[in-house]
Amino acid sequence: MTITSTPTKAPLGNPVAQKASGLFKQRELGIVLALALLVAYTAIDNPRFLSGQSIRDNLLNTAILAVMATGQAIVVITRNIDLSVGSVLGISAFAVATLMSKNQDLPMIVALLVGLGVGAVAGLVNGVLVRYGKVPALVVTLGTLYIYRGITYSWAGGSQVNADELPRHFLTFANDSILGIPWLVLIALVVIAAGSIMMRNYRVGRELYAMGSSPAAAELAGIKVARNLLGAFVLSGALAGLAGVLYAARFGTVDAAAGTGYELNVVAAVVVGGVAVFGGSGTVWGAALGALLLTVIGSALAVLDINQFWQQAIVGALIILAICADRLVAFRIARSLRKRDAHV
Amino acid sequence: MLRSSRTLLSVGTAALLVTGLSACGGTTKDSASNSGGGAQVAASADPNAQAKEGLKIAFLPKQLNNPYSDVEVGGGKVAVGELKGEYKLVGPNDASASSQVSYINTLIQQQQDVIVVAANDPNAVCPSLNQARAAKIKVITFDSDASKDCRDAFINQATTQGIGESLAKMALEQAGGAGEIAVLSATPNATNQNSWIDVMKKELAKPEYSKLKLVKVAYGNDDDQKSFQEAQGLLQSYPNLKAIVAPTTVGIAAAARYISSSSYKGKVAVTGLGLPNQMREYVKDDTVKKFALWNPADIGYLAAYAGAAMASGQITGAEGEKFKAGKLGEYTIGAGGEIVLGPPTEFTKANIDEFNF
Asked: Which domains can be identified in chain A, with CATH numbers?
């Protein structure tokens, strides 16, 4: 199986990868441009938008969303979707907050590992149901969205964990920094970098793209589709669980409703970041850029003093605009590539 | 068809009965104020009537598993215990308009003596509540009122006026008597938030508040992340801001958490309406000096006592009647059957450890 797949991939892989990397550069360039325009406009209106505190705030606000967007991007690239991430964040945040409030001396690393673990189990359930239940991921994760949230509600029973019950080192983790970079941002950067490198340079990453491009062909080519799919869902769940720990540390108050509705922000970030919902294209760091753009939009609208009634509509319009710009760039690139090929 | 017309008939009878009752209540009011209440009619109030024991008092909050509702009904449970009654708690998992109806119908079949309900919708629960009243069950609303003609009394946590005034007063104090202040609210169309802010604005127009300037009302949608961002936006847009007033528990906690971890700590005060447990951390680290809230446990407590007094015949729900509510003391029923809990409790570093909700 592997013998047949390697030679067919090698000759095809190189030119496609070259073209693709050029294309991806352009795709993400659109988001970077939109981001630069937005920041410039807001900064002209209010120079304090570029102050150290403000940049720090924006990065901290992005960190949680970007961690979740990394996992979601990988799932979406395989032509699936994980709608349960908001609920996984909730159950992980509540589990970790409860654990830490009862065991004040536990080190932070234990909290992070527990969060990852809770999320991974939730993700595994999603993956197994999608793969072996042969149910579309949209339906499965919509179901588990409610199931995980329901479990959290029945566990919490209306109680909440407050900031004064959490150990000090847990709360300060959200604001502490190392070499001037806050831990939250550092964790997000590591996750994004690891995700990007895995998807770009490693065999398993390319296989995930192949599965999204053509599921049937991937199966015929001998790719271990089941293993990879479970892996993608476990990863998405684990990262949502990690995000839950960061959420608990950042906001300090956790009840059963933590993270309700986050899944839509995450999917929006991934789509704005240039990951096609049909799978097979897009990058992890593009999704992270999407998360940054959405967060900066939220902050900028607050600074620009825009009427609350318009804010959501503007966010929606910007999402569509970002996607249109992205499509336009992709279309032009594709055309110029065709022309070049024709001349050669 | 037959069944539905019969229901219509019974509802009609119930309505007639209710009008009849309230008419009696009307006469009671006069006789009560004149002679202290003589028990000539069955429905009239007798302030000296023996408080009944073993009353079945059922609580139906907006939804279960809501931390705030849990504290409210917790107070009710304590009161029912003091009254030697039977406490029962039922409720839906979602706060949608019609979700409470089936619970009310079940409570009627169980022949409860009192139903204490926080209506999810003022009208959707009305037909069921009136059926309950036709079955001689006393209906007390709390937290959020049902239509006036389908309940016997309403426990109002605080008047809109009282809260607005309290917010303005705390803003003045926390801003140090002068400077720019901003409001961080929930959603732009939250009725209670808007009416409090309106009263606050009217207060700020008075001469003693002339040095305070309300620069913006921001909306955090009762979402942690959004409230964080709005607080950040306020501080960037208004560098001279002295105080943020957040009349919502999510907003005040988010603003306090943000400021406690930013370079604005100590420069910008946070105040408003919050839950002591949620705010304890920030009061102790001096980010928040003072905030307020009515005591939700007292709402449930007062509701249980009002229900018991009514089921015992001490009151009927008419204006001017008085009854005793355990540790809270004596209350007088106001216009439209409203019983006001009192001014909001203020929490500071000195007293916050006495509260647990």
From this structure: 18-337 (1.10.3470)
Distance from the Cα of A288 to chain B's closest Cα (Å) equals: 18
Number of compact structural domains in chain B: 2
Same domain, yes or no: B130 and B219: no
A202 CB-near residues (< 8 Å, 6+ apart): none
- With an 8 Å Cβ cutoff, are B65 and A305 in contact? no
Contact: A158, B66; criterion CB under 8 Å? yes
Tens-digit pLDDT profile for chain B (357 aa)?
A: 444 445 544 544 444 444 444 444 333 333 333 333 333 334 577 777 878 888 999 999 888 877 778 888 999 999 999 999 999 999 887 777 778 899 999 999 999 999 999 888 888 889 999 999 999 999 999 888 888 889 999 998 888 888 999 999 999 999 998 999 999 998 887 888 889 999 999 999 999 999 999 999 999 888 888 898 899 999 989 999 999 999 998 899 999 999 998 888 889 999 999 989 889 999 999 999 999 998 888 999 999 999 999 999 899 888 889 999 888 889 999 888 899 988 888 999 999 988 877
**Residue B205 and residue B200: Cα distance in Å, rounded?**
9
Give domain status of residue B355, yes or no: no
CA distance B206 to B227: 29
Q: Using an 8 Å CB-CB cutoff, list residues of chain B that contact chain A.
A: 64-67, 69-70, 93, 188, 216, 218-219, 223-226, 228-230, 232-234, 236-237, 239, 253-254, 257, 261-264, 277-278, 280-282, 284
Residue B353 lies in a domain: no
| CATH code of B55's domain | 3.40.50.2300
CA distance B257 to B183: 16
Q: Are B161 and B298 in contact (CB under 8 A)?
A: no
Q: Does A50 touch chain B (CB under 8 A)?
A: no
Longest C-alpha distance within chain B, in Å? 72
Domain co-membership, B62 together with B134: yes
Domain final residue pick, B235, B269, B293: B293
Residue of chain B whose alpha carbon sits nearest to that of A154: B65
* Within a domain: B215: yes
Contact B274, B244 (CB under 8 A): no
Q: Is-above-0.95 flag for pTM? A: no
CB contact under 8 A, A53 and B262: yes
Are the C-beta atoms of residues B305 and B285 closer than 8 Å to each other? no
Domain that holds residue B252: 160-293
Partner-chain contact A53 B263, CB within 8 Å: yes
Residue pair A161/A272 in contact (Cβ under 8 Å)? The answer is no
Q: Do B149 and B33 lie in a common domain?
A: yes
Let me know whether B272 and B300 are in one domain: no
Q: Which of residues 4-43 of A touch B (CB under 8 A)?
A: none
Q: Is residue B354 part of a domain?
A: no
Cβ contacts (< 8 Å) between B226 and chain A: which residues? 298
Task: For residue A52, give the chain B residue with the closest CA.
Answer: B263
